[in-house]
Each structure stands twice: as C-alpha cells, then as structure tokens.
C-alpha cells in the first residue's frame, strides 16, 4: 500500500517506501485539480498514481529509463513513457507543468553496499545510484525541469543527508525560490520543495536552504 492505494510492484522495480508518502501528499496539494504533473524516475508509478487518483481531471505523465518500471507503472494506471528523465515526455507539456516530482536515485555510489542486504535481490541498482555524492541525477532534474515547469510551478524531490545544502546554489542559479527542506518526525531530511520563477532565471533568485 502507498498513500492508501494498492500499488503493484513487479520484480526488478523500485519498491515505494512509506517515507515517500508525505512527498506525494505535498505534491498533490501543489497540483491544481485540472493541472499537469510530471513524475520522473517513476518506478512502479506510485507517485503518479497517487496524483491522478487525487486529481482525476489532472494530467500526470511519468517516465523511467527501465522498461520493467514503465510496464509496471502502466499496469498501475500511469501514463508512463520509457526514456531518460524528461526526454520521452510529450513536447506539448513544455512550459505547462504545475508539479515536477520524483524519487530519483540519490544514494552515493560508495554507500550502495550499506543498503539492506536483500535490496538488490529484488530491485535494480539503477534505482539507487546517484553518483559520487548522490546528487548527479538530482542536479540534472533541477536543470531540465526549468524547460517544463510553468512560472510558479513546484519542484518536489526526495533526497537525504546533506544533499539539500549541496544543491542550494543550483536551486538559486536556476530560478527556484521559496525553498523548503522537508523533514520527517525525527528531523531527518526527506526531500526538498521549491517554486520555479521563470522571470528570475537571468537575475538573482531568492530562497535558500
């Protein structure tokens, strides 16, 4: 179950965690009833499914590089496309997206062996490996999302540790403002939320972490 929904998860596909539910709920709050959302690295489609179930009249497009994930997300009712991040998405959505959300790979490569022993017995390392400091794919999403988000659109990404601070300069430079670090009840960092201000990309962007 994820956000009260039964989500099918096929072998080899990333298993959605309960820790991601607040991110999904916040994304649903930021998505207008008739809005447009994009879920990158969708895996089983749990986030995308939560969004379109919450807002049946919204359009929610999802992507994943793994064909098994795309098939699984589709079986859960998501509009899923196979490809790298935003590359496979319909071009008519550029500049119209209200919410970009994702649980992208953010585990530092050196920390992969520290994950639970049976993780890769069921899931693919592709779903976890975020490069040397875990922010390689996060930074790509930050940059690429600026082509897709409308002015005032929301970006919500799961991350951890010190990564919110590590990407603060990227957020500011790319025009994201009103940055919030999302933490759980124990005070552990779980994600970041920011608002894209298109008019501010060439100037000094506000917000900070």
Name the features.
209 residues; alpha/beta; seven-stranded mixed beta sheet
Q: Could you give a short description of this structure?
A:
This protein has helices at 21-30, 46-54, 67-75, 119-122, 136-145, 163-166, 168-174; strands at 36-40, 59-64, 79-82, 97-102, 149-158, 176-183, 189-196. The protein has a seven-stranded mixed beta sheet with strand order 3-2-1-4-5-7-6, with helices on both faces. The chain contains seven helices and seven strands; from the N terminus they run H-E-H-E-H-E-E-H-H-E-H-H-E-E.
Q: What would you say this structure looks like, in words?
A:
By secondary structure, the chain is of the alpha/beta class. It has one domain (18-200): 3-Layer(aba) Sandwich (Rossmann fold). Helices cover 25% and strands 22% of the residues. The protein contains seven helices and seven strands. The chain has helices spanning 21-30, 46-54, 67-75, 119-122, 136-145, 163-166, 168-174, and strands at 36-40, 59-64, 79-82, 97-102, 149-158, 176-183, 189-196. The chain has a seven-stranded mixed β-sheet, with helices on both faces. Strand 2 (59-64), helix 3 and strand 3 (79-82) form a beta-alpha-beta unit. It starts with 20 loop residues before the first helix and ends in a 13-residue tail after the last strand. Mean pLDDT is 92; it is low at 202-209.
Topology:
Layout: H1 21-30, E1 36-40, H2 46-54, E2 59-64, H3 67-75, E3 79-82, E4 97-102, H4 119-122, H5 136-145, E5 149-158, H6 163-166, H7 168-174, E6 176-183, E7 189-196
Parallel strand pairs: 1-2, 1-4, 2-3, 4-5
Antiparallel strand pairs: 5-7, 6-7
